[in-house]
Amino acid sequence: MIMDVFENLFGLFRTKTDKYGGLWVKRFNISKENLDTCNGVAKPDPKTRTCAICVALNDTVFHLANRPRLSRHLHCKCEHMQEQELNATLDFDMRKITHYLFVHPSKAGLIESMGYTIEDALEVYNAIAANALARYAEGDYELDVLNCNGQHIDIEIALPGKREKVGHIYEFYTGWIAYPHGKLKNATPFAGWKEKEA
Ligand SMILES: [Zn+2]
After folding, report:
1. How far is the CA of 55 from the centre of ligand 1 (A)?
2. 150-160 and 169-179: which strand pairing?
3. How confident is the model at residue 108 (pLDDT cuts 50, 70, 90)?
4. Alpha-carbon span 138 to 122, nearest angstrom
5. pLDDT, tens digit, for every residue of 147-174?
6. N vs C: which end of the chain shows fewer Cβ within 10 Å?
7. Are 136 and 155 in contact (CB under 8 A)?
8. Distance 179 CA to ligand 1 centre (A)
9. Which pLDDT value is given to residue 10?
10. Is residue 189 part of a domain?
């Protein structure tokens, strides 16, 4: 169990490029509810007087150097348990690519601008999935919004261009939600371009 006092200590070393390896923590509290039992929309648990946000974070696994703050409020009962390793899995529906990324008016032009067509859906899916798993396993993600739908994280994807765009590397973010036990649920396959460093 990692005590709260270490929070700030480790926080000092938190940078995007930190790769500590092996330092994973599962967050837990006395509630039996989590995002899975709540079907993705956490509610307060009156039995244990646990708030919706703590229910949303229950059983989630984060890198020690890159995780939501442990104590969210007065009398927060969340604790951390150290994990030997991360068993990361994805909840990533192929339709996020075939029925959204390639067809939604706000997205379709993006993926086509990288040289891809709908026949490449599986290739795009596999590239995003592999990138996401690898970066999550390195603690290389950015914490985004935390609400009753869970802790959102952004993961950077580097996708090589195809056809007339061969030779280009496209860098963008994909949006995920941290589900219990190291599962990432895809929120959006495209959450914005990575901004070029000046
Ligand atoms: Zn709480």
Report:
1. 7
2. antiparallel
3. confident
4. 24
5. 999 999 999 999 999 999 999 999 999 9
6. C
7. yes
8. 17
9. 44
10. yes
Which structural domain range is residue 117 located in?
Answer: 89-193
Residue 106 CA to ligand 1 centre (angstroms): 36
What average pLDDT does the segment 141-148 reach? 97
pLDDT tens string 43-60: 999 999 999 999 999 999
How many whole angstroms separate alpha carbon 14 and alpha carbon 142? 11
61 part of a folded domain: no
- Residue 164: inside a domain, yes or no? yes
* CA of 3 relative to ligand 1 center, distance in Å: 17
pLDDT score of 195 more than 90: no
pLDDT at 59: 97
pTM summary value: 0.86
- Say if 156 falls within a structural domain: yes
CA–centroid distance, residue 183 to ligand 1 (Å)? 21
Output the CA 53–ligand 1 centroid distance in Å.
6
For residue 157 the two structure tokens come to: 């994807």
With tokens 């509630």, the residue in question is 31
Specify the number of domains making up the chain: 1
